[in-house]
Amino acid sequence: MLPATAMPTHDSAQLFKQHLGNFMRFDQWLRRLLCSRSRGGRLPSHSTTYKDVFMNETHPPKNAAEHPQSSLPDWLRGPRFAGLPALDATAAPPALSFEFFPPRTEALENQLWACIRRLEPLSPHFVSVTYGAGGSTRERTHQTVTRIVSETSLTPAAHLTCVASTRDEVDEVARRYWDAGIRHIVALRGDVPGGGAYAPHPDGYAYASDLVAGLKRIGDFEISVAAYAETHPDALSPEDDLDNLKRKLDAGATRAITNYFFDTGVYLRFLDRCLAAGITAPIVPGIMPVSNFAQAAKFSAMCGASVPKWLETMFEGTEDDPETRRMVAAAVAAEQVRLLRANGIDQFHFYTLNRPDLTYAIAHILGVRPKAP
Ligand SMILES: Cc1cc2nc3c(=O)[nH]c(=O)nc-3n(C[C@H](O)[C@H](O)[C@H](O)COP(=O)(O)OP(=O)(O)OC[C@H]3O[C@@H](n4cnc5c(N)ncnc54)[C@H](O)[C@@H]3O)c2cc1C
Predict the structure, then answer these.
(1) Is 239's C-beta closer than 6 angstroms to any atom of ligand 1?
(2) pLDDT value at position 219?
(3) Most CB atoms within 10 A, among 256, 291, 319, 332?
(4) What's the rounded mean pLDDT across residues 134-141?
(5) From the alpha carbon of 226, which atom of ligand 1 is closest?
(6) Domains of the chain (ranges plus CATH)?
(7) Where are the beta strands (DSSP E) in the chain?
């Protein structure tokens, strides 16, 4: 039952009727005003509607360009898009993996652990921890990975690179991981610290494929490698890059994780090319929920990910509006994962940037629910 104050009273009904009366008088007044100005004072017939008046070509509304008045036939002339299929509630949810970076300060360490604790109930297939340029985070990566093993229910994967290190140094790091019970490595070439052209260390593993083979000699690690739907910037050609991916998988890797991409069609065509090249291992899409467009655009220029104009348009004007930016970010990533899911993809790798909220929401959209502790 409604509380007494919300019940319509005789007075309020009267008031409403009075407002309606005012509105109708306003309607008549506006019609008179518009018509007397546009048609030399002639009144339109009683069937004339506001739309007729406002659509009068001699007096388009001031903001006509911003609010085009198209008709139903106009709407139906263009291409038709069906909606993405609804989530199949009976299908198993996709397998997720989350990527973190090792923290530099105590505050960042707290942020990382809050992120890990928030995402842990989603029971990802694994979580991975990056390795800084040239091994600059060697100890911090190791500490983070071993803490994940000892304090959580998660299965960690440690990233490891070849750049600026001898084979002995890299092997030593790998053995420490094996001894600490870490059985999954993300094997990478890495980039030159501070930028510049890559040259293999004279006593090091030259490329990621060499590292994969070296790791397999140390222990029977599960190994993931990197893939580039838009081709790695150093590759001689897309075909050459694909040959390199195949070499890494033939050397013992069981999955590839892609660099992030915004054009989902590029990734789907890349899968076709992988299959045609004889690759059957999963090429897991790397998803980066963009929350800072300017930063993402800068980073994309360095790692060869193209930034479509539509994405820039989506974020335009949100620079000082973090709340809208986050909603846009969630919408963009949600649309991307739903499209991928509709195309049969059932594994996703999230670049979390140590922030859980967008990843958590997108996982939810994919049908992933937290498990009770
Ligand atoms: C999922 C993912 C995670 C990442 N994590 C990290 C990280 O933790 N730390 C980090 O520093 N970086 C990381 N990176 C970035 C990565 O290190 C760089 O993109 C790097 O430039 C390439 O690494 P790769 O393992 O793909 O190299 P590779 O597979 O070795 O390929 C690098 C380039 O060399 C070419 N190439 C390969 N073999 C040969 C050959 N024999 N002769 C000539 N050319 C050859 C390839 O075509 C390609 O262009 C990551 C990237 C991804 C996608």
Answers:
(1) no
(2) 98
(3) 256
(4) 90
(5) 53
(6) 95-365 (3.20.20.220)
(7) 95-100, 126-129, 156-161, 184-188, 222-227, 255-260, 283-287, 347-351
